[in-house]
């Protein structure tokens, strides 16, 4: 009996369905003792060992092939009970000699299932096998490329959303590679890859990963009520637990777990799909892309059900094409979601590190950026330029013109500093009328020119407010060094002392008031 989990997956948008390979038989082969049952019909297989016999009326070499999922042993014999060697490939395949009419097939199935035996000419089988191998290889390769690409993005950005997506696509890719026998081509002698328990394990992992991925992507914590989200996550966790529990059970117990897991999968996927629809209605970020991916899967399944005779390739591999497109669309949604989260995080950092009055970095924001520049300077060397700026007679400006005019002066000075510095320079307001600039330059001349630009711009300036034109000057303490620096405190102290010397020199040079 075919896995119930596979049947559930084949009907749901996650497309973890069993690809039923149907190939029109070209030879007259019938099961012996089964009232002339055509060999291409689904044959019920019991759990355990059994023998099937069939008669083939063929006049040229043909190939018998079938999926070896859940089969731990099989062997084909001719009428004289001589073993027929299997051919390498994704399926169990045996050559049929036209000189033999009667064949015996011994099977040892792990669970009850239906088995479709297919017979075709050698040329038809080679064409089918090549197309199957190429299609599945491209699909698996595409999935793993997405897993690696998105996983590396997640590693660089330290965001769980990327890892959640990678785990989902990885689980789905492994499930399909096991279900479709792709690993049998590389490891023909390892029966583990057709094991019922292993396939069921990755079925449960995929259900779990899918729900966790959508929970992160669509923010179920905010979108749904608490009990609704906990119900979906609880069902997903139960699916994972059951898929792991069945590994230690006998096959009969694993088959019972399979029935339970099928029901849990159906409930979980229905709830998840409803949540996606609701998220789209509420215009949750990226929900439209998620619904597009779901729509692709629905259309793919409808194509297989309604347009059976339209395209043999799409009938066989429509689900693979569908999940490929879905994985790509979900990757786009994940990247957009994480970009939004990063933009929000950067925006929050900027708001927390920006001086509201002057639109420059505040003290904490400036120190954070300055430490980064200091670290780069110590590695690459060059010249470090620190400018400490203090507005001259700022208290008198506030007293004479008012605090509103004083705020306007600070805002204009902030604009001047930003215009005279580079984007990569750290420009900030430490507090009051004190400003600071830290720049990593690669020549002494570059450092000196920066200091000269700032000093010239602030040496004698008239600043226009709503009611006044205020003459403003500022003292600039410029500290330029190419020595290794350990901390900002000592740098600020040196620049601050230079600034006070400049301020004192201005007082000494000021003409005496008679």
Automatic annotation (TrEMBL):
Spans traversing the lipid bilayer: 134-153, 160-178, 198-218, 230-249, 261-281, 288-307, 313-335
SMART domains per record: GGDEF
Source organism, top-level taxon: Bacteria
Signal sequence annotation: 1-27
Pfam families found in the cross-reference section: 7TMR-DISM_7TM (PF07695), GGDEF (PF00990)
Residues in GGDEF domain copies: 382-514
Keywords: Membrane, Signal, Transmembrane, Transmembrane helix
Protein name: Diguanylate cyclase
Source species: Alteromonas gracilis
């Amino acid at each position: 009996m075919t896995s119930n989990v596979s049947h559930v997956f084949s009907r749901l948008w996650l497309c973890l369905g069993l690809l039923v390979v149907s190939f029109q038989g070209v030879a007259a082969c019938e099961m012996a003792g089964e009232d002339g049952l055509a060999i291409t019909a689904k044959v019920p297989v019991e759990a355990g060992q059994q023998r099937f016999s069939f008669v083939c009326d063929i006049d040229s070499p043909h190939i018998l092939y079938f999926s070896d999922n859940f089969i731990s042993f099989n062997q084909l014999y001719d009428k004289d009970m001589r073993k027929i060697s299997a051919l390498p490939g994704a399926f169990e395949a045996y050559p049929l000699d036209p000189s033999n009419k009667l064949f015996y097939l011994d099977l040892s199935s792990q669970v009850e299932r239906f088995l479709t035996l297919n017979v075709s000419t050698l040329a038809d089988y080679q064409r089918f096998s090549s197309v199957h191998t190429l299609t599945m290889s491209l699909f698996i390769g595409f999935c793993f490329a997405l897993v690696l690409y998105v996983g590396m993005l997640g590693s660089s950005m330290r965001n769980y959303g990327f890892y959640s997506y990678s785990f989902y696509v990885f689980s789905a890719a492994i499930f399909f590679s096991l279900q479709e026998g792709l690993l049998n081509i590389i490891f023909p002698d390892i029966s583990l890859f057709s094991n019922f328990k292993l396939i069921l394990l990755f079925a449960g992992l995929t259900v779990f990963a899918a729900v966790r991925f959508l929970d992160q992507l669509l923010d179920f914590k905010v979108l749904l009520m608490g009990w609704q989200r906990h119900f979906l996550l609880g069902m997903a966790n139960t699916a994972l637990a059951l898929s792991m529990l069945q590994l230690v059970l006998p096959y009969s117990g694993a088959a019972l777990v399979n029935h339970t897991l099928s029901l849990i999968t159906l409930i979980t996927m229905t709830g998840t799909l409803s949540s996606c629809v609701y998220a789209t209605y509420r215009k949750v970020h990226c929900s439209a892309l998620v619904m597009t991916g779901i729509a692709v899967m629905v259309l793919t399944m409808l194509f297989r059900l309604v347009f059976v005779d339209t395209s043999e390739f799409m009938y066989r591999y429509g689900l693979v094409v569908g999940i490929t497109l879905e994985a790509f669309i979900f990757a786009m949604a994940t990247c957009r979601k994480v970009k939004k989260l990063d933009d929000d995080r950067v925006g929050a950092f900027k708001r927390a590190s920006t001086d509201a009055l002057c639109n420059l970095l505040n003290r904490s924001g400036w120190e954070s950026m300055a430490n980064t520049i200091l670290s780069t300077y110590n590695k690459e060397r060059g010249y470090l330029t620190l400018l400490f700026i203090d507005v001259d007679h700022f208290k008198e400006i506030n007293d004479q013109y008012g605090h509103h005019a004083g705020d306007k002066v600070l805002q204009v000075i902030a604009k001047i500093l930003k215009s005279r510095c580079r984007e990569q320079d750290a420009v900030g307001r430490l507090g009051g009328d004190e400003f600071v600039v830290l720049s990593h330059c690669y020549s002494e001349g570059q450092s000196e020119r920066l200091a000269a630009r700032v000093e010239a711009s602030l040496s004698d300036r008239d600043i226009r407010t709503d009611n006044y034109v205020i003459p403003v000057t500022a003292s600039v303490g410029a500290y330029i060094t190419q020595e290794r620096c350990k901390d900002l405190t000592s740098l600020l102290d040196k620049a601050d002392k230079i600034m006070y010397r400049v301020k004192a020199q201005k007082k000494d040079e000021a003409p005496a008031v008679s």
